[in-house]
Automatic annotation (TrEMBL), chain A:
GO terms for biological process: tetrahydrofolate metabolic process. InterPro entries: SoxD, SoxD_sf. It comes from Thalassococcus halodurans. Gene3D superfamilies: Folate-binding superfamily. Coiled coil: none annotated. This is Sarcosine oxidase subunit delta. Residues 80-100 are annotated as: Disordered. The lineage of its organism: Bacteria, Pseudomonadati, Pseudomonadota, Alphaproteobacteria, Rhodobacterales. GO terms for molecular function: sarcosine oxidase activity.
Automatic annotation (TrEMBL), chain B:
This is Sarcosine oxidase subunit gamma. It comes from Thalassococcus halodurans. InterPro entries: TrmE/GcvT-like. It comes from the Bacteria.
Amino acid sequence: MLLIHCPHCEETLPEAEFAYAGQAHIVRPADPMSQTDEQWEEFLFIRENAKGAHYERWRHLHGCGRFFNAVRDTVSDRFLTTYPSGTPRPDLSTLTEGKA
Amino acid sequence: MNALTSFPTETLVSNAAVSVTKVPHRARLSLRARGDLGPLERALGYSLPRKIGGVTLGTACLGPDEWIIMTDDAAAIMAACASVDLPHSLVDVSGREISFEIEGDRAGELLTLGCPRDIDAIADGTARRTVFDGVTVTLWRDTSERFRIDVWNSFAPHVAHLLEIGARELAAEMA
């Protein structure tokens, strides 16, 4: 079972308490009327399929209930870091394997 | 079958290893608020725990802006908070869930049946929401050998049954 650090509870807890919630850092366009169909398609459906570090959202469903962001290595399934929603993407070069 | 008809007796199981009992009814209030909590705390008459898991006077912090208040006098708290000008939500959820008390030498071991958390790492006098065999529960650790779990009514028969089986197994191991 994966162990995930919840940035709100400040504890490292079993995966069973969490729910995956898709790719992180997808921003809804500020002016939706200006978007073309292709831009909407990109926003709604096109997602990364990263091999390696992947920025994703998780929710501490059976816990504090908060959404937060995580960087997970999709090859090793290790969490490189977790951080609250709304904060900028951490720089990948500063993350070391197995931290957090 | 529901939570009200399933448990005619208070004691579900009691043996040398562990006992599981239904906790008598108490009012429960769900409080959500963020920002400067000062006005709310003055109305309540005590300070709210800020760290998730912290418990003060029957009030547990479940999330960054969420608390559950166990009380015998919900009306007094509702009245005291009614005039607080901090935007907040205070909802009576007494009918939502019931609580079981799990007590005994092997109470922690019984909880490992359904709870993936490291039970030993939970400090005494704290409470948090967690999962028990797929059911969201609030787990209170009162002392090292006494726990309480709050379970939503519709899940209560399942959780109670599981605890009952587990308690019998633990007792059989000891015999």
